[in-house]
Amino acid sequence: MATVTYDLKELSRLLGWNPAHCKVIVKQLGADPNGPISEDIAAKVAGKIRRPWPPQIEAEAEAVAS
Question: With contact defined as beta carbons under 8 Å apart, do 5 and 35 qualify?
Fold first, then answer.
């Protein structure tokens, strides 16, 4: 099974949150914001900023809405 990782830019886009703030939270969680961010850390970041994880992809959201 492949491990899912994110870079900081991708994580901030998925969460709809400022990359600088995501970077601070990733650092607070003890991870390197310049390296790959594990799905576990990504979920913890989402929890800290009260965002759903995993994020709902736009295409899925549109399908559910229609």
Answer: no
- 25 part of a folded domain: yes
Tell me the pLDDT tens digit for each residue of 17-54: 999 999 999 999 999 999 999 999 999 999 999 999 98
- Rounded to 10 degrees, what is the CA torsion of 40, 56, 12, 53? -30
Domain count along the chain: 1
Query: How many CB atoms within 10 Å of residue 33?
Result: 19
pTM of the prediction? Answer: 0.80
Domain presence at residue 31: yes
* Structural domain range at position 22: 15-65
